[in-house]
Amino acid sequence: MESIYHFSHPHPLVLVDKEPGNHGSRKGFCSGCNQAALEGYCYDSYECWKAAEGYCSGCEEELEGSSYGCGECGFFLHKKCAELQTEIINHPLHPQHPLSLRLKPYAPNSCNVCRKVIRFSYRCKSCDFDLDPRCAMHPQFVAKEFQKLQHFSHDHPLILVEDIKIQTNRDACLGCMEPMYESSPLYCCLNCAFHLHKKCAELPPKINHPAHRKHPLKLLAKPPPHQKECSCHLCTKPYQGGFIYCCSVCELGFKHTDPILQTVTAETHHEHSLIRLSGTISFVCEACGTDGSGFCFTCVECNIIIHMKCASLRHTIKIIRHPHRLSHIYFFRDKEAGKRECNICYDELDLGYGSYCCADCNYFAHVNCALDEDLLEDENSQSSDDWTAIFPAFQEIKPGEIKHFSHKHNLILSDDGVEDGQSCEGCVRSISTSFYCCAQCNFFLCKCCVHELPKKVRHWTCMHLRELFFYSIFDCGHCQFLSSGFGYHCYGCGKIMCIRCHEILNTRIVNIEGQEHFLFFDHKYEGECYGCDDDFNRDSFRCKDKKCNFALNYSCLVLPETARYKYDEHALKLTYRDDHDLSQCNCDICEEKRDPKQWFYHCAYCDVSAHPNCVLWRSPFVKLGKPFRIGDHEHPVTLVKIDFYPPKCNKCGKPCRDDLSIQCTEPDCTYIFHWNCYRKRKYSLVRCLLHRD
């Protein structure tokens, strides 16, 4: 079998012809860190995750085709990565010094061209200069066929990059402050993180425009000092960075991104020609339904007036809130169809003015709501594909029997009752209806978790791909509660979403007991949570009525209706308001004052009231007692809360009383950590994917 010795690894690398996955790992050991892990890999660190998922240890992309690997260490390289030349002399992008190939796994640098964080790079130690091998070997640079530009806005020369993918979430064009699309032509500086779209870098230095006929407009990197509160003279939006055309005589500024400044002839989907009015009049824009003044366009045949910016509205757009494209219309032809609401802000639509609507379903939106930058989907993004596609999490073996990804044995559908307190492994809720169970071990999944949770899904809140995993414990990135069971990991944001937050966001509107109007998701709400008084400035559920200040964050929305406390024999019920005087409102657990306006748990039989945090702590959805494996311990461990005679934490030395802890299941082993202490000790954790036995 062909093998090579590579400078980046101490052991010989063997040529394999397929994706490794767990190839070469010893049974019962992690292929990433070589520690005990019954599932074959422990996901305990970034390195283990990369090795287990079949990623190249050099370029960090998925392994496809032939590759070199060390099965014992879980180290793999693409064949092309393993065969890269170790030194480049006189490279066109850095001819002054040779570039040496090196692997820096723990503190990777970023490529000076594409800005991508890389572990494999060609590096010049003298100049602190790095090149991604893909950039170094790109035909455009190898053939020395690239343009250089000395731009007025930057001290160093810029080079033209035609078709290299850049790190879009790190840099923005400093000309228009818009994101750098992955394959768009751009000019970049090799010395610093300075990028310009090709169209922004090649803007003319002076223009004459009908919007300001008196004087020519000069392109500047920023407004002159005398314009303290600069705003675009056409769209009146304040200046927030980027290039701007200015008239130094009249002290006027025009954004170069304003569509009216870019073209004199309006590009519009209106069926008739539009005439530009240069007078200063007040009007209501027929295209978007909002007030306007100053420059505008009019259609003589339709007798409409629209904003200058609305003359170039796109006929169709794609937003992350809806799976289909939305089309712009100027008015509803059937005005007797009844009231219609905007599906984003839930205010009433004026049927006599323009809006965006879906031709396939009953979805409508105000123009300004649909054009919100946080909601518009990038036309060049791959997520523009059908994000309603369903990827099932199970395979049906025969009627009533399935193979689910979360368990090694087949699961059988059952209608029999379960023991009191038995909960679903996926959502950690009590099972009350039909469920799937394992005939060989104590494993249960409710029917909803099996049939209503796809393995992969694109979520409308961010449009990134989310994948369903089975966790022993994880932090939900939305409600901040610790949870066990199923969670959706977002490959774009890196957050994990619990099933409860997933269900709430899928409904999009929530009804609360005692609240007249429903709550809807508002990504820009600023205010306080009615349930806990926490301040937040985005991503909340607020009341449809703008006069009402009722809003809730994720943490309050997922609070269970009932909860149990160890010193109360009855279940405590979530209560939304206390009519007692403030002087009589105390928490019976921490004995501190309670705000009667905030939510609390109450037992009517014992007249006990308590803060939600005092009753639930942060782990109301964590399943205790189930064994699982972690990468740094030889025995199975479990999650526990110890009341009496608690042992001391191996990290902080304090007793593990009432705190969530990780403890070894072997009676003679003293391995025990507070959960928070374990997380701090395992600083290399990327995500807490801890597989169970």
TrEMBL record:
Q: Which UniProt keywords apply?
A: Metal-binding, Repeat, Zinc, Zinc-finger
Where's the Zinc finger PHD-type domain? 55-128, 172-236, 586-634, 648-692
Among its keywords, does the record have Iron? Answer: no
What lineage is this protein's organism placed in? Eukaryota, Viridiplantae, Streptophyta, Embryophyta, Tracheophyta
- The protein's name is Zinc finger PHD-type domain-containing protein
Q: Which PANTHER family match?
A: CYSTEINE/HISTIDINE-RICH C1 DOMAIN FAMILY PROTEIN (PTHR32410), PHORBOL-ESTER_DAG-TYPE DOMAIN-CONTAINING PROTEIN (PTHR32410:SF216)
Q: Name one GO molecular function term.
A: zinc ion binding
Domain of life, per UniProt, equals Eukaryota
Q: Does the keyword Zinc apply?
A: yes
The record, for InterPro entries, names:
C1-like_sf, DC1, Vacuole_Formation_Reg, Znf_PHD
